[in-house]
Amino acid sequence: MKKILVATLSFVFITNVFTQTVEELYEAKDYQGLAWLEGKVAKPSITGSQAYMFAFAFFQTENDSKAVEYFDAAIKKGYDSVYVHFYKSVCLRYLKKFTEAHNEIDYCIQIKPSQPKFLNEKGLIFLAQTQYDQAIAVFEKVKQVSSNFYEPYYWIAYTYSQKKDDKNALAAYYAAKERIIPQNRYHLLSLTGIGQLEYSFTKDYQKSINAYNDALQLSAQNYELYFGLIKSYNALKDSTKADSLFALVKTAFDNGELPKEELKAQNIVIAEFTSKGQNVVIRKSLLSPKNKQDLLFKIFLMDKTGDLIERKFEVLQSSEAGTAPRFQLIEQDKTGKETPTPYSWTNDKISVNTLEQTIRLILEGPAKAKPSKKASK
């Protein structure tokens, strides 16, 4: 009897500790801790509210399959809040289970038809399915339901952009910028969209610069904004400003502060131009060239779709450090074979304008002249 009593008391004690731990982790928003704890407990012992907490933790840590499993468990155990269905719908959208996602969000809308968050999610599901017109129609409806819910203003612009309708996208981004308060993250995203489209669509590089600078006032450490600014300043032939921004980005690279993609690539896009209707992309190395074959620039001629590389060029250091350094422009074919071109420079102070003129000579006609070996600025 004593052993049974001790076992019973121990079970109650462990259960109480477990309950407090789940609640405390959830209240503290320690979602990684909750996700870890899930593997240490028996599923039959959890309550509906605890199942929801585990589900939300997996939702926050982007384990959508596991989140759906626990949202279903919460519903089965009687925790049938409308927000369980809402977050389950979001997870199903990320899992590309669109029919199920629509069913869940339609249930939410039926319960609370005036909740803008639910309608907005319906639009996002259409957007994820590339059903752009349906998405825009829903986002327009969300604007009518609530004047203080800002997301649809941005998503309308983004959806037009995905449709390749740059004219309407740009107008919608400007409308979103005016409507959304600066403290809301969608204001920043709208400014970024303006910067991109003023650069690529209207070619109004000063307006692009203005938008990126406004965005930097809100997010000073967002280095992707600096990438856009560098391209815009180079398009305006303001190499002094572009080079100063590149130096700032290079310092951030040296300190490991850039996004993972750029840290891995070790180079960034600094300029683009068009040759015979095809886009040419210039990337500059974030590593200072020191030894023979060290990279300074990569240049890609994109195909007419803009998706594939048609020709690839590189500017490499062609002599060892300690000697008079020379930088050679080479072309690399699809097998990796390198063929030197007639073009070279005495140092690494090669301007974007000089590099563009050199690539144009190769792409647009016979190379009748060799660029000066003196550095261009």
Provide an overview of this structure.
- With 377 residues, this protein is α+β, with helices and mostly antiparallel strands.
- It has a domain at 267-286 and 294-366 and 373-377.
- The chain contains 16 helices and 6 strands.
- It has helices at residues 2-27, 31-38, 48-60, 64-76, 82-94, 98-111, 116-128, 132-145, 151-162, 166-179, 185-200, 205-218, 223-235, 239-254, 260-265, 352-364; strands spanning 267-275, 278-285, 295-302, 309-317, 327-332, 338-345.
- A 6-stranded antiparallel beta sheet has the order 1-2-3-4-5-6.
- α1 crosses α3, α2 (31-38) packs across α3 (48-60) and α12 packs antiparallel against α13.
- It is elongated, with a radius of gyration of 28 Å.
- The termini are far apart.
- Residues 1-17 and 367-377 have low confidence and may be disordered.
Number of strands: 6
Shape: elongated
* Helix amount: 55-70%
Mean pLDDT across all residues, rounded? Answer: 89
Order of helices and strands: HHHHHHHHHHHHHHHEEEEEEH
State Rg.
28 Å
Q: Given the structure, what is the number of helices?
A: 16
Largest sheet features: 6 strands, antiparallel
Identify the strand order in the major beta sheet: 1-2-3-4-5-6
- What distance lies between the first and last C-alpha atoms, to the nearest angstrom? 91 Å
Strand content: 5-15%
Which structural class matches the secondary elements?
Answer: alpha+beta
Instruction: List segments where confidence is low: pLDDT < 50 over at least 5 consecutive residues.
Output: 1-17, 367-377
